[in-house]
Design the sequence.
């Protein structure tokens, strides 16, 4: 499937998402400022309660007056009752209001408003003080006077959820003490303080505290102090804004680092995918980029792809050569058949016809044998890749194989007498001859080598099979040695090529396909081993025969 072209790779997005996830979790954890807001509100309410307590103490001393009232029971006589003077209370509230930004209201023990620092009375009438909202430091505003920062902050979790302020926009509403839960609580003799939210968007904070005015545990009234909590809202807003700035800086750094990381991963993978797609489409100039200098997993992938494409190219070249060799090998018997068939029609002599007929039959047998060997060789790679290797003990394998060349009455498990065709020499029993491989295929290799050696050896010269352990290379070598004419030095490597045939004199032409040694080498290569040939000479340099060596990796 061809590599799709994308503006942003999915791998880059995944890297970026993974890196940003930690920042997002951290940011939302920091932005959830409920604890910070609670501490700010608690501190401001405590300060407001202390101020209200001071005001209540001052009013209890300066605005209190005593009066005598009659009791319903004549026997008890008259009693003294303490109350707040309306005039004194109003004057003190006005003076106290001039010293603070807080709004001070005093309610009687019956819940009636007695004084309000925002309401000034005089000869000219009643003047109500209207508190202006704090000035905004924002220069550019959007969306009805709200900045983008305000909108972003409002979308974030606000922490503590506060109740809506009961409201006192009108003077009539302020006179009703039952509108304010803190006042109702203080009329019972308890101190009460609350934080509220107000405003059209619920962003403004109002703090309130109510303290009873008492004398000798008698509640004379309530001091109700309220304050604009803009400082708290501004502090929380500024903290959120600082966190947003820090988050944006961290996000920018994360984005840059993610893009750098993605460039180091996604781009090389794109190059590899593009090159692999070109190889798939059969472009002759296509080459897998060499990224092994990275010394990481992508470099390993590049090396694997390069090795895979090289192996694939080698396999394709091998298939092409094999097809050409097959065509060449089949062409010879076909040409011979055609020539013999054309000649037999013109020849009148019966003896000549019989000879030509035998030639035709010989060529047909040759073609049949050649096609069978070609079919087996073509299936060998697939069969080797499907079969599972196991532990193979070469001692019984070679013993049974060599004994099969003896006559039925003289067969033994291993070793042989001097008059036998194949002599096997094995090391002592305590020496382990175990390899990892396919037993049937290894037997095929050794049988091909023994058959080849027997075909070159004189009838009275046995073929010798032996094993040698190479401890340095951790290999077991199987040697097959004959007493034939040997191999030309220039052909020691070529004899393992397909369809190569160097037969002894006197052997019938076409008896061998030339694939035996090639198949043996193919099987040994699949076992990660090696096979090679050499000539055997005596002390004088005279050639005594040939020796084939199969080296396999030993276990133990």
Sequence:
């Amino acid at each position: 499937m061809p590599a799709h072209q994308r503006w942003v790779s999915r791998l880059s997005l995944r890297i970026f998402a993974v890196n940003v996830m930690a920042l997002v979790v951290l940011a939302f954890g920091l932005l959830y400022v409920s604890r910070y807001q609670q501490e700010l509100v608690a501190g401001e309410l405590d300060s407001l309660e202390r101020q209200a307590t001071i005001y209540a103490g001052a009013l209890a001393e300066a605005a209190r007056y005593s009066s005598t009232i009659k009791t319903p029971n004549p026997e008890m006589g008259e009693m003294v009752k303490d109350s707040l003077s309306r005039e004194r209370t109003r004057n003190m509230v006005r003076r106290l209001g001039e010293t603070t930004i807080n709004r001070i209201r005093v309610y009687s023990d019956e819940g009636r408003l007695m004084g309000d620092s925002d309401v000034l009375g005089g000869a000219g009438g009643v003047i109500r003080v209207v508190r202006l909202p704090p000035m905004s430091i924002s220069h550019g505003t959007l969306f009805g006077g709200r900045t983008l920062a305000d909108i972003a902050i409002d979308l974030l979790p606000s922490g503590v959820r506060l109740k809506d302020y009961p409201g006192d926009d009108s003077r009539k509403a302020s006179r009703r003490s039952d509108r304010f839960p803190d006042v109702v609580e203080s009329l019972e003799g308890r101190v009460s303080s609350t934080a509220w939210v107000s405003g059209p968007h619920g962003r403004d904070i109002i703090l309130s505290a109510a303290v009873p005015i008492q004398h000798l545990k008698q509640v004379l009234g309530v001091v109700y102090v309220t304050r604009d909590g803009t400082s708290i809202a501004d502090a929380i807003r500024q903290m959120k804004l600082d966190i947003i700035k820090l988050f944006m800086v961290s996000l920018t750094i994360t984005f840059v680092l993610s893009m750098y990381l993605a460039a180091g991963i996604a781009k090389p993978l794109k190059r590899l995918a593009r090159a692999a797609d070109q190889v798939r489409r059969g472009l002759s100039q296509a080459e897998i980029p060499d990224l092994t200098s990275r010394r990481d997993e992508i470099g390993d992938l590049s090396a694997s792809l390069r090795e895979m494409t090289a192996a694939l190219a080698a396999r394709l070249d091998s298939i092409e050569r094999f097809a050409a060799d097959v065509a060449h090998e089949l062409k010879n018997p076909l040409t011979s058949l055609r020539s013999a068939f054309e000649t037999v029609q013109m020849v009148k002599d019966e003896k000549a016809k019989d000879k030509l007929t035998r030639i035709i039959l010989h060529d047909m047998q040759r073609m049949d044998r050649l096609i069978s060997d070609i079919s087996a060789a073509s299936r060998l790679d697939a069969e080797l890749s499907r079969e599972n290797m196991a532990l193979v003990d070469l001692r019984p394998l070679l013993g049974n194989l060599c004994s099969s060349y003896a006559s039925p009455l003289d067969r033994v498990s291993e070793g042989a007498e001097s008059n036998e065709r194949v002599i096997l020499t094995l090391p002592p029993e305590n020496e382990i001859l175990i390899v990892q491989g396919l037993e049937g295929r290894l037997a095929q290799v050794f049988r091909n080598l023994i058959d080849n050696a027997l075909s070159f050896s004189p009838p009275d010269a046995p073929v010798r099979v032996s094993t040698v352990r190479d401890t340095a290379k951790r290999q077991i070598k199987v040697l097959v040695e004959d007493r034939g004419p040997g191999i030309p030095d220039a052909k020691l490597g070529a004899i393992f090529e397909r369809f190569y045939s160097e037969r002894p004199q006197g052997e019938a032409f076409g008896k061998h396909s030339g694939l035996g040694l090639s198949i043996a080498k193919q099987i040994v290569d699949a076992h990660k081993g090696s096979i090679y040939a050499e000539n055997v000479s005596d002390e004088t340099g005279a050639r005594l025969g040939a020796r084939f060596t199969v080296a396999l990796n030993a276990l133990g």
About this structure: The CA atoms of residues 275 and 288 lie 5 Å apart. The mean pLDDT is 79. The two ends are 46 Å apart (CA to CA). The longest strand covers residues 204-215.
